[in-house]
């Protein structure tokens, strides 16, 4: 984590500093180096912002590599009434017996132009945990994550790109869909896919699974976990919607961006609990499949470039290392009064860096 030199401690640009160190020690201009997970454009912008400029949907630790936002769940009946009055998608009242409103959606091939239509206010049940949610029409697990067609990019051939995209999807499954990880176990398979030579990421992973993780080292930034003594996932299905894109990154790397929303139906841990609530998590993870002749890496591993997360009903300003959904009256409370309402199912915009937040980042979700 760049120990001993924080953001702004030096006026020397990062690329000049790294080139000086490399040339001084190794004397070879193109020698492989250890990668960093810093999002450089975002980092430089955030350095220039005044204090208090944290995003309302984001969290920016120091140095600003990872961002997260948390929402409380609220029910806005007025929105539902407006949709009932104006229903251009002809979705209202079309739910079938398994809780699905209309046919399954096709995979997401590009960023949508707007939020999905509001469903009728129908409470989820153990048999229909996605009832009343747009996720009822989403695909299950990795089937909801669009993987683009491969093409030769950077240092990789078409076949290598295809394999890297497949392994990227494997990481998403191992970090956010694996039943053992959802039960709170260590995400061993996911961690095995991360380049072990990234010191800042290595430090983050070591700290993330301590007894008391910190805000900056919260495992929920990358991994989905529930404390089974408090809450458990209903059934075997997690609904997903999202996509992967790729381009050539620095030093000829294959850079893959993933943007996926996960919907977890959960109940309280006590035997016989039947109140179903949903925790909704959107993650945007950018990673590099590096050229081993230019970056110190291990075969079959990628380097993290940046990652950020938004969550609804996963806990607001709590840092237990697990999602902490609210149940009962608390689960339907509007939370922060006067705060900006957000729709956790709206994927029409990139996860923002945002502007200042007077309530520390906790906002009210319009639906769950």
Task: Quickly list its features.
8 helices, 368 residues, alpha/beta
Characterize the structure shown.
The chain is an alpha/beta fold. The protein has one domain (about 15-365). The protein is built from eight helices and ten strands. The protein has helices spanning about 15-25, 40-50, 75-85, 160-175, 180, 190, 200-210, 330; strands at about 65-75, 140, 145, 230-235, 240-250, 255-270, 275-290, 305-310, 340, 360-365. Strands 1, 2, 3, 4, 5, 6, 7, 8, 9 and 10 form a ten-stranded mixed beta sheet that branches. A hairpin with a 5-residue loop joins strand 5 (about 240-250) and strand 6 (about 255-270). The longest helix is centred in the middle third of the chain and has 19 residues, at about 160-175. The radius of gyration is 21 Å and the shape is globular. Residues about 1-10, about 40-65, about 75-100, about 330-340 and about 355-360 have low confidence and may be disordered.
Count of structural domains = 1
Order of helices and strands: HHEHEEHHHHEEEEEHEE
| Count of DSSP H/I helices | 8
**Average pLDDT taken over every residue:** 78
**Fraction of helical residues:** 10-25%
- Beta-strand residue fraction: 15-25%
- Strand runs, count: 10
Low-confidence stretches: 1-10, 38-67, 74-99, 330-338, 354-360
Distance between the termini: 36 Å
Shape: globular
Structural class: alpha/beta
For the report, how would you describe the main beta sheet?
Answer: 10 strands, mixed
Rg, Cα atoms, Å:
21 Å
